[in-house]
Amino acid sequence: MSVKAILGTKVGMTQIFTEDGNVVPVTVISAGPCTIIRKGENSVQVGYREIRPEAVKRLLNKPMRMSFEKSGVKPFRFVRSLPADELESIEALTDINVSMFKEGDSVSVTGTSKGKGFSGAMERHHFNGQNTTHGQSDRARATGSMGTGTNMSRTLKGKKLPGQFGNVRRTVKGLKVVKVDEQKNLILVRGSIPGAANGLVIIRQQA
Description:
Blueprint: E1 2-3, E2 5-17, E3 23-31, E4 34-39, E5 43-50, H1 56-59, H2 62-71, E6 76-85, E7 95-96, E8 106-112, E9 115-119, H3 121-125, E10 163-166, E11 169-181, E12 186-190, E13 200-205
Antiparallel strand pairs: 1-6, 2-3, 2-13, 3-12, 4-5, 4-7, 5-6, 8-11, 8-13, 9-10, 11-12
């Protein structure tokens, strides 16, 4: 089997000490086990976090429930497609776990960043603000010019304006695996990853 990624949830951040006494900030990820539901051309569809029977109707709509029934697998809370090769050696209804990773591996982690709600242009786009001179008192945190005037007289597409801040898909590449705990299904990676605690993440192997 050669699946290149696994699903997990962010537990939180902590720190560990190396043998020479240095402190290393790490993020703890609870990863897998994931069940392979079906195979594609260059990927496999996996399920993560099995749903209790009494909660199936509350968490899944009818098309999703029928899809699981036709596949002959128990319903899962999360279903994603993950990259894989050597598909001939992969069998459906088998599990994948953190044993695919080892200390020192380079991985990329994809998650959804924290949502900050509606934010102004200074917070959302890191504007510096305007000078509080010549009597102006209410423009210090304003967006500024909206675009052209006489000829086009419209706001150009892509103008940085106030709006929804956060809650977007982000990927952090080049993270190093510090420790793998197969008994507890935990991966410790150096540094921070996107999202809040208990948020779904995808951990991919990097060459």
